Amino acid sequence: MSGGSARSLGKGEACPPRSAIRDPRRPSDACWGQAAPERSHAGGSAPPGQVPEGLIRVYSMRFCPFAKRTLLVLKAKGIGHEVININLKNKPEWFFKKNPFGLVPVLENSQGQVIYESAITCEYLDEAYPGKKLLPDDPYEKACQKMVFELFSKVLTNKKTAFFGGSSLSMIDYLIWPWFEWLVALELNEYVDHTPNLKLWMAAMMKDPAVSSLFIDPKAFRGFLDLYLQNNLEACDYGL
Amino acid sequence: MRFCPYAHRTRLVLLAKGIRHEVININLRNKPEWYFTKHPFGQIPVLENSKCELIYESVIACEYLDDAYPGRKLYPYDYYERARQKMLLELFYKVPHLTKECLVALRCGRECADLKLALRQEFCNLEEILGYQNTIFFGGDCISMIDYLFWPWFERLDVYGIADCVHHTPALRLWIAAMKQDPTVCALLTDKNIFLGFLNLYFQNNPNAFDYGLSC
């Protein structure tokens, strides 16, 4: 603030808002993809303007695991980007012009080109931007990564049946369950909110007698994990 | 398997790129035990090269062939255009399931008006894309990977008894006609009577269905 000419504020005058204060030493948050927590854009909001030259924009939501994929790649490759968060419970009408499916993540560049579907956005960024390649160059190695991804996607989306082996619980469900039990024990299960089929599967599993009788107590599990991470030899007997 | 639409995609790409290959057909109703060493669930298509590397999932196999072999590139060079073709594939994802459900319903003498309506809606979405782009093919004015990835289900519309599902989509009909002019598509067109013969035996649960039409 320049010294001489600014009128002094007197008694009864309002305090200037915090948002008016900008630290000139910090680079613009929008420029380098700092997660300056931006409120999400909701129904009725005005469409954003053109993406500035030299940046790529990602439409995201702070808790969406699919959008997280794109943010990870942007960060890992050091790609200058800006983030616009979308209120997924009250989507702005203009967002459907970006992605007819109305889902995040969506990339938009300064030429107005739009890319959606998390895996497609990640591959696009890897191809279009320089620096460390995240996908292998070798065609077979690349195909292997895609085959693993397909298997993983089948676990996540499980579109067709209530359980992984069909309409009733079977071996494959017990084989997969322990990792999801960890999510519950660590109280991280809200992360499956955006994959409803998986959330339904978890709920169904927790009703199974075998699963519920062996359910890990969250406190005991956290106690164990704390000790384990400290390499404490008593970790495995926590709670006994 | 000679009549599988997913395997058809891979055979189209092999031919389009002029890649020397051999085909081993699998009897899907009576799979040889050794086949599960090639694919955990015994599905087709699977590619195997001389280094014993295995690639499965039809779309992954097609992309692998485009990357690994020289000559004509079926996916565009431009990164954005490549991404666009992959996004178009997402728009297609309900078509295989719907066409199969229609076929099964018709063959079992069941009503399938709802299914056909749903399929027509999917075709309308594809029609919109062609209209918006104002191009003959899905990738532009020349045939490219995305066209080959869509084609097998359109070739089967007639023999499945659901050719009327493209009655209201003129751009899509033009695309079908243009595809039938492509030398690769033509070379792999299956004779309608042979396909019908296969379908008849398949729906009678005859294990020899897959070899219908072979003279040996």
TrEMBL record, chain A:
Domain GST N-terminal, which positions? 54-133
What Gene Ontology terms describe where this protein resides (cellular component)?
Answer: cytosol
Which InterPro entries does the UniProt entry name for this protein? Glutathione-S-Trfase_C-like (IPR010987), Glutathione-S-Trfase_C_sf (IPR036282), Glutathione_S-Trfase (IPR040079), Glutathione_S-Trfase_N (IPR004045), GST_C (IPR004046), GST_omega (IPR005442), GST_Omega/HSP26 (IPR050983), Thioredoxin-like_sf (IPR036249)
GST C-terminal domain boundaries: 97-229
Subcellular location, principal: cytoplasm
Q: Which reaction does it catalyse?
A: RX + glutathione = an S-substituted glutathione + a halide anion + H(+); methylarsonate + 2 glutathione + H(+) = methylarsonous acid + glutathione disulfide + H2O; L-dehydroascorbate + 2 glutathione = glutathione disulfide + L-ascorbate
Key word Acetylation present:
yes
SUPFAM superfamilies listed in its UniProt record: GST C-terminal domain-like, Thioredoxin-like
Provide the GO MF annotations for this entry.
glutathione dehydrogenase (ascorbate) activity; glutathione transferase activity; methylarsonate reductase activity
One of its GO biological process terms is: L-ascorbic acid metabolic process
- Renumbered to this chain, region (Disordered) spans 1-48
Annotated protein name in UniProt: Glutathione S-transferase omega
Automatic annotation (TrEMBL), chain B:
Under the cellular component aspect of Gene Ontology, which terms does the record hold? cytoplasm
Database matches in Pfam families = GST_N_2
Task: Please name the GO terms of the biological process aspect recorded for this protein, alphabetically.
Answer: glutathione metabolic process; L-ascorbic acid metabolic process
Annotated InterPro entries? Glutathione-S-Trfase_C-like, Glutathione-S-Trfase_C_sf, Glutathione_S-Trfase, Glutathione_S-Trfase_N, GST_omega, GST_Omega/HSP26, Thioredoxin-like_sf
The protein's GO terms of the molecular function aspect are: glutathione dehydrogenase (ascorbate) activity; glutathione transferase activity; methylarsonate reductase activity
- The record places domain GST C-terminal at 78-203
Reactions catalysed according to its record = RX + glutathione = an S-substituted glutathione + a halide anion + H(+); L-dehydroascorbate + 2 glutathione = glutathione disulfide + L-ascorbate; methylarsonate + 2 glutathione + H(+) = methylarsonous acid + glutathione disulfide + H2O
| Residues spanning the signal sequence | none
- EC number(s): the record gives 1.20.4.2, 1.8.5.1, 2.5.1.18
Domain (GST N-terminal): give its ranges. 1-73
Keyword set for this entry?
Answer: Oxidoreductase, Transferase
Query: Any idea what job this protein has?
Result: Exhibits glutathione-dependent thiol transferase activity. Has high dehydroascorbate reductase activity and may contribute to the recycling of ascorbic acid. Participates in the biotransformation of inorganic arsenic and reduces monomethylarsonic acid (MMA).
Task: Give the protein family.
Answer: Belongs to the GST superfamily. Omega family.
Record protein name field? Glutathione S-transferase omega
